[in-house]
Amino acid sequence: MPHHLYNLVAFLISALVVLCITPLVRKVALKSGRVDLPNARKVHQGPMVRLGGVAIFAGVLFALLSVWALGGFGLQATAKSNEVWGVTIGGLACFLIGLADDLFGLSASVRLLLQAMVAATAWYMGVHIDFLTIPFVGLVHLPDALSLIMTVIWLVGMANAINWIDGLDGLAAGVSGIAAVVMLITSLFMQQPAAALIAAALAGGALGFLRYNFNPAQIFMGDGGAYFIGFTLAGVGVIGLVKSLTTVAVVLPYVILAVPILDMSAVIVARLRRGKSPFVADKRHLHHRLLQAGISHRLTVLYIYVLTLWVGTLALAVSGIPSGLGSAIGATLLLGYTSWQVWKSTRQSQT
């Protein structure tokens, strides 16, 4: 089978499994009373199942196992094999941490400690950031101790960043799906087929989940789904892009995931400036601010999708991918139109 077809197979299997399993997960959770109740900070109005991550994880896992059985990974080098295992096992562990939090509730400190241990293990298995791009200096090699710290911050930070934007119907799933598709394209361009396969399965799972998660949502992905997706996206960014030793490749994951990164960073800074813990939830995220400005739920989500697509196409353009520049121009025009719609909605809500 031509190698590019393995990516399509991974995407389709993951999406189909999620489409089939999600209603079953919802039914079981409703019967067992595993629901998320509304409160002052949350947008949903009634009890909602938040175990959709089980379906997403199952879809991605089944897709990767299927492609592996078909010989799609074809990993010969032990080092590359270890990297792939580091991302997949790390994703599994983060899913379990989130699932435990969804079912039983874990403190923020316990979650962070467990996530840091998982990220450190992934680093030991070869998922590590070895280089940073410093303005006016270029590519700088990191010593092991700094590489470990940067990798743990990146993997744990992204797991939580995706969880933090999971505040509106379909928001985290759509943003993650778009980012995964961009990572699939860039990983293929950087000739990192194993990373591309993981990105393809993740894209299929996240976008398939939108069938039940887009507004009005029937189910949420919960911490299990968000931690799994965030960690896996971050891991693919490391083994698929950062491993390519070019100044541009090293910064690509940060560009592709700029929307959740900047949202998380802005919220943390705002909370610290107010003398509050960065882990105490509030309504200071971008999606909360757009809602408060009078923009509808759906337009808010679609606007953040377009922002994610825009930064993704910028990554395609700067990486030199054919038609990347054309994609970026198209996405810029779409962002301009969507921004005009947002501005118009804001004006209408103020009159």
From TrEMBL:
Any one cellular-component term (Gene Ontology): plasma membrane
Alphabetized InterPro entries for the sequence: Glycosyl_transferase_4, PNAcMuramoyl-5peptid_Trfase_CS
Keywords from the named record: Cell membrane, Magnesium, Membrane, Metal-binding, Transferase, Transmembrane, Transmembrane helix
UniProt-annotated binding residues for Mg(2+): 163, 223
Transmembrane segments: 6-25, 51-71, 83-100, 112-139, 145-164, 171-189, 195-214, 226-245, 251-270, 299-318, 324-343
Membrane disposition: Multi-pass membrane protein
Annotated localization: Cell membrane
Swiss-Prot/TrEMBL cofactor(s): Mg(2+)
Domain of life per record: Bacteria
A single GO molecular function term of this UniProt record: metal ion binding
GO biological process, one term: cell wall organization
Protein name: Glycosyl transferase
Species this protein is from: Neosynechococcus sphagnicola sy1
